[in-house]
Design brief:
The structure holds 3 protein chains of 3 kinds. Chain B is mainly alpha-helical. Helix content of chain B is 75%, strand content 0%. Chain B has a single domain, classed as MetI-like (MetI-like fold, Orthogonal Bundle). In chain C, a hairpin with a 2-residue loop joins β1 and β2. By secondary structure, chain C is α/β, with parallel strands linked by helices. Helix content of chain C is 35%, strand content 23%. Chain C has 12 helices and 12 strands. Classes of the chains: A mainly alpha, B mainly alpha, C alpha/beta. Chains in contact: A-B, A-C, B-C.
Chain lengths: 337, 301, 327
């Protein structure tokens, strides 16, 4: 019951942040040199289109009324229309969300699966060659530009070795997408028993997922290692050892249980960040997700879409962060609610 | 229990480190000795600075010199890094780009450092409604994933080096502001601040001469690491066309120029530019880690 | 046969800043049903010697010399496996800062029962009952409820008692308590000390109490070892120590305790504890001693036995003993 109140309280605390976010986006848009209506209407707009857009955006009204209208539209989920397709941006983004989600979640899952054990082991074996190796690889991994590593992987595995398919998106060119159940191709192909599609989906996903995993893994390793090192210095680890418990028991029950708490928060943060569309990776692999949509929008001067994208990404980030915080409150008995 | 020979080894090692630590900047030497990677970082950063400073002198060709007759030629004796699709020497462009990328990163981070530290110091010291408002704004700024925010701002402002620097500076400011603020908050309760107040030291002096220098440590570490992020962001934005304008040489744009060729097997443009970027970012990361170890009290055992 | 026999123990920490000789040639022993106190200022090496007994000295610290025998067995050659059998079941230890010494994310019940289950291979229910019984024995109210709680929900005194229960739950022959009363209220302190005495009387185990507080020593111990800068300065029965202190350091310690019933100036010991990296030559106390002689600066005094059975490491006595009388 108290947990419910805590959740509600945290949700309420979101509101000022959301307002801040919407304000920033709004100000950024209005602060541009030139006519915002022109930007939103697009370069092909006629004078009438522009005039209509100006009226639509209430540009003649005082700024706070504009903001109020903006907020009102937002709350209705109306983020404007793309001048190119005429479709509401919200629809476009929603349609592309599953692609981004599938890619990011798979990569995150793998990165956590490998990252936490590696980081923990590096901490336990601090100072050994294994630890040094992990540390070097981690620093290297964090320093590689993600858009470059993706390209290198394509070059090596597609061009040179021919192991990976062409980076043309979620499905091979000649394979049809599985029947849409959830929008997540991995899931859909399994559900409909479409093994041919599943094979295609997985091979198409391989390289982008690996690229993302290489990008996420080092940070997870570093955070886990650092947290484990801090925890292993704590008094209670020594107490546990003093009672004769085996190192293995102490590592899992005492060290990891405590070390993973801040790691959960960090990983959640990365996840929220990545869910916003790994723009660069999607671009390279022609992945039809939200990130690539935003790049297309930029190239096409589709300003409404860009603005909407940035806004949505922020909201996703904040939401995921909130969920992670709540999860943390449940996991750590010291958090009072 | 340790054997006699192990003990002798341990004692000798300890004695050596002790002598080292007693020299000037002992901690620094010990850290870099224990952690060879940090030394590598320093070397890389220095190398980068040198290349940036001397780049134009070191380049064998003019980076913007097109030579259609040798377009897309692989690495050779006359063009160690090959040529791009306009016939420009890739090595020269990579060297020239070093200056561009480094300048952008350094200027952007410096601006964000100055503004961020000021904001952090003021809000940390005065607190109150100023603090609340500013923190809300910073919260809002940090609710956007950094690159996405940079992308949105750059899209709004248009490409160009000047805009790129401004965008990156804006995106990095909240980080240093927060760190400085939390340092100031923990320092302002200390006795020496009260002593200064009683001595009628003017507030601005308390902040600038006493609080900021004491709190600047973690901010410096953050700045070193921020340089690496700034370079990545700058290159990333340029990669998608929102940064440096062609034909200016920049690692991100070079990588993007080389993409089409990469899929046809002509790898040298993207690979060398990316390699240069990687090495530079690595240098800053290692350097930043080394700084962090120096300032980390944990090392003082 | 004494339960614990420490002989010429040497523990050193090989740090970046030099070698810290935390424990130097320290010897003491404890028998069943007696309480030994180890007293000294912080940095005297008392806690480190206890950690060595438990095999918990971690790098950069190493035991570089000496012998530690628990119930006759030399533990310094122990494998990890042997330590798992010894810690908790033959020797138990309680640490300072009880709030920090308990795992914050595990319930008290879990932390207590897992020890018993590990060593005695008991079932969940049996271990639970045993733990509740012990909690009641140390006067923790609502023992059943406490088992469900987390450490941050308990007070410092209760945490300390939980730690004691954890240490004794498998009936070890030796119990070591490191600063059991530091940081606690005086009233709680007294309760705790009474508890510790009761435990000894009932269980018959040997106890070591490590503290800097002479008052605690006076209330609980039979014999005392005085340590300074990693060396043993003296060892005595409690009545002898307080009645007829021999070592200048011991005398200075006793004199520095403010008396509540007399008006007096505070008499701290001049100077400060030497940096462990930079121990003085000869007797470590000589820079602060009011009876320093030339030999004190160069030669480390050995422990000699005085006529009333006390041991003392001071040149004042060793020289006189050679001459056949005592100052």
């Amino acid at each position: 019951m108290r947990l419910l109140f805590y959740v509600v309280r945290r949700l309420l605390m979101l509101i000022p942040v959301l307002i801040g976010v919407s304000m920033l986006t709004f100000i950024a848009a209005r602060m541009l040199p030139g006519n915002p209506a022109l930007l939103v209407a697009g370069p092909l707009a006629t004078d009438e289109d522009i005039a209509r857009m100006e009226a639509d955006m209430h540009l003649d009204r005082p700024i706070w009324e504009q903001y109020f209208n903006y907020l009102r539209d937002l709350s209705r989920g109306d983020l404007g229309r793309s001048w190119r397709t005429g479709l509401p941006v919200t629809t476009e983004l929603l349609r592309r969300f599953p692609a981004t989600f599938e890619l990011t979640t798979t990569a995150m899952f793998l990165a956590v699966l490998f990252g936490i054990p590696l980081g923990a082991m590096a901490a336990i074996k601090q100072g050994t060659r294994f630890d040094h190796l992990i540390r070097v690889l981690s620093v290297g991994g964090v320093s590689i530009p993600v858009f470059w590593s993706g390209l290198i992987l394509i070059f090596v595995f597609y061009y040179l070795l021919g192991w990976a398919p062409a980076p043309v998106g979620r499905m091979g060119l000649s394979v049809a997408a599985p029947t849409r159940v959830s929008g997540f191709y991995l899931l859909d192909s399994v559900i409909t028993g479409n093994w041919h599609a599943l094979g295609s989906v997985m091979s198409q996903m391989a390289l982008p997922v690996i690229t993302l995993v290489f990008a996420m893994l080092p940070s997870i390793i570093r955070v886990t290692r650092s947290s484990m090192l801090d925890v292993c210095r704590e008094d209670y680890v020594r107490t546990a050892l003093a009672t004769g418990l085996r190192r293995r028991t102490v590592i899992f029950q005492d060290a990891l249980r405590n070390a993973l708490l801040p790691v959960v928060t960090t990983i959640g943060g990365y996840y929220g960040y990545s869910l916003g569309g790994e723009v660069l990776v999607e671009q390279i692999f022609s992945w039809p997700g939200m990130g690539r949509y935003s790049i297309d929008a930029i190239y096409n001067l589709d300003y409404a879409a860009v603005q909407a994208f940035v806004m949505i990404v922020a909201i996703i980030y904040i939401t995921v962060y909130l969920v992670v915080d709540l999860l943390y409150a449940v996991l750590d008995p010291r958090v009072r609610y | 229990m340790v054997s006699a020979s192990e003990r002798a080894k341990l004692e000798e090692r300890s004695a050596r480190l002790q002598r080292l630590s007693r020299k000037r900047f002992g901690v620094v030497r010990v850290v870099f000795l224990q952690n060879p990677m940090s030394t590598v970082g320093v070397v890389l950063v220095v190398a980068l600075l040198l290349v940036a400073a001397l780049g134009p002198l070191m380049a064998p060709y003019d980076p913007n010199d097109t030579n259609p007759r040798v377009r897309m030629s692989p690495p050779s004796a006359s063009h160690p890094f090959g040529t791009d699709s306009y016939g420009r020497d890739v090595l020269s462009r990579v060297l020239a780009a070093a200056r561009v990328d480094l300048t952008i990163a350094v200027v952007a981070v410096s601006i964000s450092l100055v503004i961020g530290t000021t904001i952090g110091a003021l809000t940390g010291y005065f607190g109150g409604w100023l603090d609340m408002v500013v923190m809300r704004v910073l919260d809002a700024l940090q609710s956007f994933p950094q690159f996405i925010l940079a992308m949105g701002l750059a899209a709004a402002m248009g490409p160009g080096v000047r805009n790129l620097i401004i965008v990156i500076a804006i995106v990095m400011t909240p980080g240093s502001a927060r760190i400085m603020r939390s340092r100031i908050i923990s320092l302002r309760e200390m006795a020496f601040v009260d002593a200064a107040r009683i001595a009628r030291v003017p507030t601005w002096r308390i902040i600038s001469a006493h609080l900021v220098p004491n709190g600047i440590g973690p901010v410096i570490v953050h700045a070193a690491l921020a340089l690496s992020f700034a370079m990545l962001d700058a290159a990333g934005l340029s990669f998608i066309g929102l940064g440096v304008r062609p034909p200016q040489a920049e690692w991100g744009t070079m990588i993007s120029d080389g993409v089409g060729n990469l899929l046809a097997g002509e790898w040298w443009v993207s690979v060398f530019a990316g390699l240069a970027l990687f090495i530079s970012v690595l240098g800053f990361n290692l350097f930043g880690d080394g700084l962090r170890d120096i300032l980390d009290p944990r090392m003082r055992r | 046969m004494p339960v614990l026999k420490v002989s010429e123990l040497n523990v050193a920490f090989f740090t970046y800043y030099g070698v810290v000789r935390a424990v130097n040639g320290v010897s003491y022993d404890v028998s069943g049903n007696e309480t030994l106190g180890i007293v000294g200022e912080s940095g005297s090496g008392k806690s480190v010697s206890a950690l060595a007994i438990m095999g918990l000295v971690e790098p950069p610290g190493f035991v570089v010399d000496g012998k530690i025998e628990i119930e006759g067995q030399d533990v310094l050659g122990f494998t990890e496996e042997a330590w798992y059998q010894t810690r908790g079941s033959k020797v138990g230890m309680c640490f300072q800062n009880p709030m920090r010494a308990l795992n914050p994310v595990l319930r008290i019940g879990h932390q207590l029962t897992r020890v018993h289950r590990k060593h005695k291979h008991s079932g969940k229910a049996e271990a639970w009952r045993h733990a509740v019984e012990l909690l009641k024995a140390v006067n923790i109210p609502d023992a059943e409820q406490v088992m469900q709680r987390f450490p941050h929900q308990l007070s410092g005194g209760m945490c300390q008692r939980v730690m004691i229960v954890m240490a004794i739950s498998c009936d070890p022959a030796l119990l070591i308590l490191d600063e059991p009363t530091t940081g606690l209220d005086v009233t709680i302190q007294n309760q705790l000390l009474g508890l510790v005495r009761d435990l000894r009387e009932r269980g018959g185990s040997a106890q070591i109490i490590i503290t800097h507080d002479l008052g605690v020593i006076a209330k609980t111990c039979d014999r005392v070892v005085v340590m300074y800068a990693g060396h043993v300065m003296g060892e005595a029965e409690i009545s002898s120590l307080f009645g007829r202190p021999l070592h200048p350091y011991t005398k200075a310690l006793l004199e520095s305790i403010p008396q509540i019933d007399r008006k007096m100036d505070l008499r701290p010991i001049p100077g400060s504890v030497p940096e462990a990296l930079d121990l003085p030559s000869g007797c470590p106390f000589h820079p602060r001693c009011s009876h320093t002689m030339d030999v004190c600066r160069t030669e480390l005094p050995q422990l000699v036995v005085s006529d009333d059975g006390q041991k003392v490491a001071c040149h004042l006595y060793s020289r006189n003993e050679e001459r056949g009388d005592l100052a």
